[in-house]
Design a protein that fits this description.
Layout: E1 2-3, E2 8-10, E3 33-34, E4 47-51, E5 54-60, E6 63-68, E7 73-75, H1 77-81, E8 93-94, E9 98-108, E10 111-125, E11 130-142, E12 146-152, E13 156-158, E14 162-169, E15 178-180, E16 188-198, E17 210-212, H2 219-255, H3 264-280
Length: 281
């Protein structure tokens, strides 16, 4: 890891599927669940934005990293969350239905006036009878006038909760919750690791219980469902075979009571009895 006064660069394995791409793909993101247990302690406390002296927006992540095309990865984690040198958030705004988090990093490596901006909104839905907030976009502003805009998808939570996700990223291997919104964004990749945010109804400067993006259909659960389906099919086939064997056994028992004449006299006697029975009928 190489560190300079202006930022921290780290070298990571780079695979073709992680390269920023212009193809917009709808991520496969499942339903939410309530985060039940906290994970390992994060290296830094949450970033707090104040309004009238009170926290109105909270952001926390284990790691915030950027990459321009195939260059080395830029790690902004310490510059964002370290309480020793807090990032400039003076341009951030909080209101009842809108919030903007602006993190101004200044000059970082070859980038001039780098800023990361998150746009959030809070909307009341009559169908559910409650407020829901969402992260609408993540933008990178750099070199005075250039801007890379990523549209956020499925990054939402009830207004009374915070939002948590293991990865909020533009990379396909992390479900690509951030989709390129302009040509500049197609040259960048952005990844928040162990991401948690709350921009509305912040009380006591702490996160509310989190609505988590984790999937119910994990690979283990999916394999369990497939295995259960196979076992049900085997059980159904076994029941079918048992019923079929009982039917065959019943037919064999019925055949054992059928009388077969052994000689011509018995056959003639049997025929006479059948004719007599017909005449009676």
């Amino acid at each position: 890891m190489e560190q300079s006064e202006r930022g921290m660069w780290t070298e990571e394995d780079f695979s073709p599927e992680d390269e920023p791409t212009g193809r917009l793909q709808t991520p496969d993101v499942p339903r939410r669940k309530l985060l039940q247990a906290r994970g390992a302690a994060l290296p830094f406390p949450p970033l707090k934005v104040l309004s009238n002296g009170e926290p109105c927006l909270l952001l926390q992540a284990r790691k915030l990293s950027l990459r321009f095309e195939k260059q080395k990865q830029l790690d902004l984690t310490e510059r964002t969350f370290s309480p020793l040198k807090p990032v400039d958030t003076s341009k951030s705004i909080c209101s009842l239905d809108k919030a903007t988090l602006v993190m101004r990093f200044g000059d970082v490596e070859d980038l001039t006036d780098l800023s990361v901006r998150l746009q959030l909104s809070n909307t009341f839905y009559e169908s559910s009878g409650q407020w829901w907030f969402s992260v609408d976009s993540v933008s990178l502003l750099y070199n005075k006038s250039e801007e890379a805009v990523f549209n956020a998808t499925e990054v939402y939570a009830p207004g009374s909760s915070s939002y948590h996700c293991l990865h909020v990223s533009s990379l396909q291997r992390h479900s690509a919750l951030l989709l390129p919104g302009n040509d500049h964004a197609r040259r960048w990749s952005v990844t928040f690791t162990n991401f948690q945010i709350q921009a509305f109804n912040v009380t006591s400067g702490k996160f509310s219980p989190a609505s988590d993006c984790a999937t119910f259909l994990t690979p283990a659960i999916l394999m369990g469902l497939i295995t259960s389906l196979i076992l049900l099919l085997v059980l159904a086939y076994a029941l079918h075979m048992v019923i079929h064997l009982k039917h065959i056994e019943h037919e064999d028992e019925h055949k054992s009571h059928v009388y077969f004449p052994q000689n011509s006299e018995q056959l003639e006697h049997c025929c006479l009895e059948n004719v007599a029975e017909k005449n009676i009928l």
